[in-house]
Amino acid sequence: MQANKEISAVERAHHALRSSILSGELAPGAMISEAAVAESLSMSRTPVRSALARLQDEGWITIYPRRGALVCELTVEQVRGAAEVRRALESTGVSEGTPQARKELEQRGIENLHRQQEALEAGDHDAFATLTMEFHRSFVELASNPIMLSIYDRLLDFLRLSLARSAQKWMGEPVQIIAEHKEMLKAAVEGNTAEFLDLLKSHQTRIYELR
Q1: What are the residue ranges spanned by the domains of the chain?
Q2: Would you say residue 162 has pLDDT above 90?
Q3: Closest CA to 125 of 86, 171, 80
Q4: Could you tell me which of 161, 164, 207 has the C-alpha nearest to residue 61?
Q5: For residue 2, pLDDT beyond 50
Q6: H helix or E strand, kind and range, residue 63
Q7: Average pLDDT in the chain
Q8: By the 8 A CB rule, do 71 and 30 touch?
Q9: Angstrom distance (rounded) from CA 93 to CA 164
Q10: pTM
Q11: What is the DSSP string of 151-207?
């Protein structure tokens, strides 16, 4: 029973810290105090220490003994690497999707794009980030491959953080963002994998300023 409570505390600490990093509350370069986190979450330092070790394994922080943990910068290499894996998974989903799956995608995609438009016009970054992740994930879903989806889901934190870092750019270009998403949806629905891949790569390069 005690072990289960300890695991639960580790999960709670990990979730709280990761959420703070992804939201920008804990910005790159910020130092995290093990004692301060334990106090704020009303738990001992042991589960916090385990949560920090897990975050370091995931690449979000660097632990410095007796000093604390430093929130890492999201490097260009990480963004580029995640973008490449996403392209592979999303384009494979489009190529593997059945006509029926693509037909169902069209209606869901149109509804999602409408909500994206509303979020951008309202300047609601969090809503747009969630909707665009759902939008891109839907292309992977076309393949009906749980393993592909599991791999893709591991990249969603990088996608959310990448969107947060480039928010100033895309929040100022709502018309172009929606237009690019519409083009990608059209290519996916038509099963045109080559065009979809070209559109996605161009979109990622511009949004994340990858060269």
Answers
A1: 2-71, 76-207
A2: no
A3: 171
A4: 161
A5: no
A6: strand 61-64
A7: 89
A8: yes
A9: 26
A10: 0.78
A11: HHHTTHHHHHHHHHHTHHHHHT-HHHHHHHHHHHHHHHHHT-HHHHHHHHHHHHHHH
Residue 52: burial class (beta carbons within 10 Å; 0-12, 13-18, 19+): buried
Spatial distance between the Cα atoms of 139 and 92, rounded to a whole number of angstroms: 8
Residue keyed to tokens 């100022």: 172
What is the number of residues in the chain?
A: 211
Block residue for tokens 């995609």: 109
Neighbours of 44 (CB within 10 A): 11
Looking at domain 2-71, its CATH architecture is Orthogonal Bundle (1.10)
101/118 Cα distance (integer angstroms): 26
**76-207 CATH fold:** Four Helix Bundle (Hemerythrin (Met), subunit A) (1.20.120)
